[in-house]
Design a protein that fits this description.
The chain has seven helices and no strands. By secondary structure, the protein is an all-alpha fold. It has one domain (21-150).
Length: 151
């Protein structure tokens, strides 16, 4: 009987101590990718084209210059903040809006392919998971909360 419980727990149980590690991995994955994409758009890093070229592209697809800046800096700064786990939920909310718009715009190219919606949709879903879960244990947010609670 105890063998069945162990097998059931292995197959269906949740290791709550590892959930924080899972969220950390998701935050790092999406955060680093968004930081690199944003840094490319803003500064031309990582093979990007810089802000001027980014603005030209965004205006071609009907996005205004202020929204092009907002989108690019959301990826750049938001990606960094997600990676370190600072202001996690507000940043995840901003990225959710950004990736929702990116998904809708890129859907015209289809769901799969080079310019398609697969990447922004994937980022959107991972970001929603982070938004719902919060920063968890391995984040600057958690360190700040512990510091303020101890005072």
């Amino acid at each position: 009987m105890t063998e069945n419980k162990i097998i059931f727990k292995l197959l269906n149980g949740t290791n709550t101590s590892l959930v924080s590690v899972c969220v950390l991995l998701l935050r790092c994955l999406i955060g680093i990718f968004l930081f690199m994409a944003g840094a490319g758009k803003v500064l031309g890093w990582f093979g990007g084209y810089n802000m001027e070229a980014t603005i030209q592209f965004y205006t071609k697809v009907g996005i205004s210059v202020p929204l092009a800046y907002l989108s690019s800096y959301t990826e750049f700064i938001g990606g960094f903040l997600l990676t370190i786990g600072l202001l996690t939920r507000p940043v995840a909310f901003a990225i959710m809006i950004n990736m929702s718009v990116a998904t809708i715009i890129s859907l015209s190219a289809g769901l799969m392919g080079p310019s398609s919606a697969q990447t922004p949709l994937t980022f959107l879903i991972v970001d929603i998971a982070i938004l719902l879960a919060g920063p968890m244990s391995y984040s600057i947010d958690r360190l700040l909360i512990r510091k303020f609670r101890s005072n």
